[in-house]
Specification:
about 35% strand, alpha+beta, 1 helix
Length: about 110
Amino acid sequence: MERYEYKVVPAPTRGVKAKTAKTPEARFALCIEQTINDLAVEGWCYQRSDVLPSEERQGLTGTVTHWRTLLVFRRPAEAPAATTDPARREPAMTAPATDTEDAAPA
């Protein structure tokens, strides 16, 4: 089974100026296109966009909910090394030496 790693980035909120993009919609689409292409160069494949709530503090005790648009990307994860990660290795357990071999049962 293939494993994936995911990257989530905030979607751009403004378009970029370009000679080819004359309207606000075209500038915004160009900005989204550039974001997706920049991550594609690094091997990330665009999956979807999501709009999710984000609760943030407002004032001393209040909270307000903002809706954030996020772009979700994924790429195949590198195969984990089986024994090279020392943090994942189990410690060797050894039994303490005892002198019970010489003692006769009571």
